[in-house]
Write a structure and sequence with these properties.
Elements (H helix, E strand, L loop, with lengths): L7 H6 L8 H5 L1 H6 L6 H12 L7 H8 L6 H5 L6 H15 L3 H10 L3 H16 L2 H7 L10 H4 L18 E2 L7 E5 L3 H6 L1 H12 L3 E4 L9 H5 L3 H16 L5 E4 L2 H7 L1 H8 L5 H10 E3 H8 L18 E4 L3 H7 L3 H8 L5 E2 L15 H4 L1 H18 L3 E3 L3 H13 L5 E3 L1 H6 L3
Parallel strand pairs: 2-3, 2-4, 4-5, 6-7, 6-8, 8-9
Antiparallel strand pairs: 1-3
Helix pairs in contact: 4-7, 5-7, 16-20, 17-18, 19-21, 23-24
The protein binds iron/sulfur cluster (2 copies).
The site of one iron/sulfur cluster has 15 residues, from helix 2 and helix 4.
């Protein structure tokens, strides 16, 4: 059970709010709903009232708190340095503990903690899609029976691959030429089952740049979906498991191609989960090695992408724009390395979009639970991407990739959505 009132964010930060409203002016949800109860400042008030017992931790309060992407835009803009998203996440868990839901417990405690079940679930979905069952069920109205927003959001989940990355990659991948580094690759669930080509590209680019790549076989989810859904206890258990897994190897760096995974493994989130616990020190040691893939390729390996070896040389040089995942730009302050990487692609033209650092509305499970709101936020992003005239929208988070691909379909655009490493792997 979460000791809500004793959490450092709840104990130390609430009194720092000076009611300036800066957080409100940058919040993508407030921009759409224009209601103080869904503004970050409103969430801060709500947490305060929960702490002081002025409101009960009811299901309704949980619904108010769920109107937040946990995108951290408010946090990075708050002049008082309040971790607003952490307050919200902590309050969600406090409220959830008092309003448990058996279906949600089953989904997050049994299914989402078991990589084999996740892979089997996606395989079934792939099979059903190949047989045309998803379209058939949609056409005859059966998908309308799905709970909550899933009846609309199922359209986002298209083209599930039949094989996971794990089934196509060896656990140990030797460096080509001279070995410079030993890399532990945190292969996240979404990349593994939904975007295996990204994982294959990651390994290909790393081994061609002198890295031995180890993919620990027993890794589990990093726990952010659990935090977002009020299950901090489950997130802690998952992270303890992953810390122990990485302790079996001695990598120079632990990398991931997923912005959400790296944000979950970096020091701020681990401090949130483990401050004052017996796991604080091992979590700190893990986080010191964690790095986003693009940062490693640019700042550590300083790679030069080979010219003239592009797999499909007949294609014209692409125009590329970039969407910053919130978990990379806000949670980790990473924005230069992915752009630098894209600008090093031989023959490519990089075009910045005006709303590059604005949330796309995907935010893990948010688009599945708040479909209509998520689509309004996506709309602004797609218009911004479209204005650049880019052929490729690059981004490095599977949740953003899924959301932007859905946006491309909704807006009838011809642009492709790709991870930067997928684009550069063509050159090796
Ligand atoms: S920006 Fe920070 S200090 Fe200002 S109202 Fe929001 S939470 Fe309070
Ligand atoms: S985390 Fe994002 S969506 Fe949530 S309150 Fe802050 S700015 Fe708004």
């Amino acid at each position: 059970m979460l000791n809500f009132k004793e959490l450092p964010a709840v104990k130390k930060q609430l009194m720092k709010c000076v009611r300036c409203g800066k957080c409100r002016s940058v919040c993508p949800v407030f921009e759409e709903i224009k209601n103080e109860t869904v503004a970050p400042r409103g969430h801060v008030f709500m947490v305060q009232m929960l702490r002081d017992g002025q409101v009960a931790p009811s299901r309704q309060v949980g619904e108010h708190l769920s109107n937040c992407l946990l995108c951290e835009t408010c946090t990075v803009n708050c002049p008082s340095g309040i971790d607003i998203h952490e307050l919200n996440a902590a309050a969600r868990s406090y409220v959830y503990d008092k309003n448990k839901n058996a279906a949600k417990d089953l989904l997050f405690d049994k299914f989402w903690t078991n990589p084999s079940l996740i892979a089997a679930g996606v395989k079934c979905m792939s099979f059903a899609q190949k047989l045309g069952l998803q379209t058939l069920f949609r056409n005859i109205g059966l998908t309308k029976l799905l709970p909550g927003d899933l009846s609309k959001a199922e359209k986002i989940l298209t083209s599930a691959p039949s094989r996971s990355a794990r089934s196509r990659l060896a656990p140990v991948n030797a460096a080509k030429k001279d070995k410079k580094l030993r890399i532990g690759y945190f292969l996240g669930c979404a990349t593994n089952v939904l975007y295996p080509d990204v994982a294959l590209a990651t390994v290909k680019v790393l081994v061609n740049n002198g890295c031995e790549v180890i993919i620990p076989e027993n890794l589990k989810c990093y726990g952010l979906p659990h935090i977002a859904n009020g299950k901090i206890g489950a997130a802690r258990e998952l992270m303890i498991h992953n810390i122990k897994e990485f302790q079996k190897y001695d990598p120079d760096y632990i990398i991931t191609d997923c912005a959400s995974c790296s944000s979950a493994l970096e020091s701020k989130n681990l401090e949130f989960l483990f401050a004052g616990s017996p796991y604080e020190e091992s979590a700190r040691q893990l986080s010191e090695k964690v790095m986003d893939l693009c940062v490693l390729l640019i700042e550590v390996l300083n790679i030069k992408i080979p010219e003239g070896s592009r797999a499909s040389e007949k294609e014209p040089s692409p125009k590329i724009t970039y969407h910053d995942p919130c978990h990379l730009v806000n949670a980790q302050g990473v924005s230069k390395a992915p752009r630098e990487l894209l600008q090093r692609i031989p023959g490519a033209e990089y075009r910045e979009m005006d709303l590059a650092q604005r949330c796309c509305g995907g935010s893990g499970t948010f688009s599945l639970t708040h479909y209509d709101l998520s689509m309004k936020i996506l709309d602004r992003k797609m218009k911004s991407a479209q204005k650049t005239g880019a052929d490729i929208i690059a981004t490095n988070c599977p949740s953003c990739i899924m959301q932007l691909k859905h946006g491309v379909r909704l807006h009838n655009l011809s642009a492709q959505v790709k991870h930067p490493v997928e684009i550069i792997s063509d050159f090796y």
